[in-house]
Structures are given as structure tokens and as C-alpha cells.
Amino acid sequence: MKIKQIQNNPFQENTYVIWDEASKEAAIVDCGALFPQEEERIEKFVEENGLRVKYLLNTHLHLDHCFGNHWAAGRYGVLPMAHAEDETLLARMGEQAKMFGLPFEVKTEKLSKYLNDGDVLMLGDNEIKVIHTPGHSRGGLCFHIPSTSWLISGDSLFEGSIGRTDLEGGSYATLIKSITERLMTLPEETIVYPGHGPYTTIGEEKKCNPFL
What is the reported pLDDT for 94? Predict the structure, then answer.
């Protein structure tokens, strides 16, 4: 398995492309491409590596993490998947944009499937395990790839920090519970790829994260 981080949009959101080297099956996680040049960068990477996009995954449905879902769905013929608890956010993308003062029209894309805690998706022979981590949003998810010891954490866990909990559906107590019970139990060598900022490890966050 390999992973590519591509930073997108004014929120400097991390979009990830993960793929199985043998089968070339790929997933785009949190497609935040807002501008044409960001879409082109993802498209170029996928083409140059000969990838076949099998999944369009979302850790949650705040606008910065799904700006590019409409484009990616049309380009690759796959609809996004997310937790049902976040679906209501799709209808309020315009409100989200106004709240952040963004003068952009946000095109939304319907979900093809709800992802639930414990679901397993496959890229080649590699499992992607779905972990429900509410708190930043009601439907927050993380994606754990045991074969490579990776965790794509969305906005649940960051290097030295945690996701904000003051947006609709957020709860500080719920997020701390999600992180401590669902993420801190993973092996310490697990590499954490967050929705913003640099990667970290579970072991490092156990030692140094002031919120935990």
C-alpha cells in the first residue's frame, strides 16, 4: 500500500490518495479540491500512477473535506461514502460556506452508501477498517489500514491537538471518549494522517498530546 497527501482549498485540508500497488485499486479520502488546479493535481497523480479509483471516502462532511466530491464522482464514476449521521450537513453546504465567509458555490454529491463502525473495505488484499469517532461531528469516521499501520483520522485527532467541537454536532466529551477508547487503543507505531497538518503516531500522541 502507498499513500499520497495532497493539500487543498483555503483550509489547507489534507486529501489522501491511498492505493494497492499490485491491483492499482485506489481510494480518494476527503476530496477537498475546490479550484480547477487542485482537481487537475489529483487527476494527474491518479493518471501518472495508473490508478483505478474504487472508493470516494469521507471522514466527515464539513465542507472543506468534501468540496471535490461532485467533481471526483463525475470524473471517476464513484459516489462518496460517509456515516449517515453526517448526511444532513450536505443540505447545508451553502450555510457552512457563509459561516466561514467563503464566496464560493459548493456543489454537493449524494452518498452512495453509509459507512458504519466495524465495516471493512478492500483495496486489493488490504483491509480498510471503519472506526466511528463522533465528537468533531456526529458522523465522524477514521479509516484504519492494519497492513501498513496507518490511521486516516480526519478532524478527530491531530499532532498535539484534537478537532474543534464548537460546530454543529460537536461535543468535547464525546470526542475525547472516541479518541481515548477507539484510537489510543491502536498500536503505538500506528501512523496518524490527519485532516490538517503533519502526520504523527499514536505513541507520540499518548505521550505529548495535552488534550489526552
Answer: 75
